[in-house]
Give the backbone structure.
Amino acid sequence: MNITQLKAALPRELLASVVVFLVALPLCMGIAIASGMPPAKGLITGIIGGVVVGFLAGSPLQVSGPAAGLAVLVFELVRQHGVAMLGPILLLAGLLQLLAGRLRLGCWFRVTAPAVVYGMLAGIGVLIVLSQVHVMFDTAPQPSGMQNLLEFPATLASALPLESAGSGWQAGALGLGTIAIMWAWERLRPQKLRFIPGALLGVATMTLISMWLALPVNRVEVPADLSQAIDWIRPDDLMKLADPTLLVAAFALAFIASAETLLSAAAVDRMHSGQRSDFDRELSAQGIGNMLCGVLGALPMTGVIVRSSANVQAGAQTRASAILHGLWLLAFVVVLSSVLQQIPVASLAGVLVYTGIKLVDFKAFRGLGRYGRMPMFTYAATALAIIFTDLLTGVLLGFALTLLKLALQAARLKINLVSLDKPRHMELRLSGAATFLKVPALTQVLDKVPAGTQLHVPLANLHYIDHSVLEMLEDWGRAQRSAGSRLIIEQRGFKRRIEGRVRTAAEC
């Protein structure tokens, strides 16, 4: 883009960047709180995602920052290994992403079955809701989804003014008010004001109400100097990465962040007709961003669809908008940190509860029904496993079910035994994949062949046949030779793989 084009595009990019900034500001802080981290950590990630990754990105219109999809994983990592180890884990995860991008492996991260991705997001959404409803009443969330669910009645009871003299019910009112404003704004907002995000409107309104009424609720803690929120990575902590559990955590973080980023980039490409995404470059950029976040002790980042779609809808056409939104975040934190300190934590929790509910996409679940029951089962099983166990177990279960489906499809074989026009001539027609799994069914069919029959077995309609099926056919031919039967295996037209050696008809 030349200077003239840049000057013409700058007003549009500035407007789009302000819209993205307004969407990103409450989400960066809310996701940090949901991750069990200080809000400033999310702001640092948002700044790096805009300024650094926005400049390097392979998807120019995609916006990067802290993602709700990683909040559950980060919360679990911090709980198990401590805040200090998040930096080294994130540094290694970012390095893996960078290497994957350099090795041009970006396309492989997009082969994840949609049922697994949607199920993962649904499970994460439920966990975010279950944890943030506690935060919405100014109480601490529990370590697991089930504990959060079981403890919610107690949290609600303690927040009621009849049971306690605390301020839990006031915080809950602010959180519910935020959700109500977001819901109403999404449905009723005028077309001319569509660029104003509901999350910002809800948080701003509840913040003003809480200040006007001087409500004694928990508020966001943001340091006046952003450098105070930086926790530089320590060499001693890097040495601990030899622990296998930390290595697994880094690989899981890299894989989930990469899959979410590239799926988001593909979705952004469908929203506009401009430059298409370079997935390998995007993966490398995300790796560099996450390595920086690891060095600074911030949250992990991904490409995020909510901020990216806001960017496209606001008219952005270049990467300048994503970069500028990061600069707005930095300027706001540096100049107006005192304003952030007035925001009720319960209001940000309300934003995350609403976001978590939106992650449970029932339309996607119903859409999977077009491809059969198995994708719907995979979606539900992945989501439930994440809720009742943990994120990694749920994702692995989703992959296992996907592989099981592929194995079953690969082993599908149609078997028909038909009589030909010639007397004592029959044909065993096979279509699909003839594997060892189908040996029992084939044996049952061959038992129906009368003695003295010449049996033709054409292979033209098979795309695969393994040695166990060939041996079974040949064994049948040898066994039935004394009864006057003859087996003829016809390989003509079969240009695909045969595992094993087919003997001639005379040998059978």
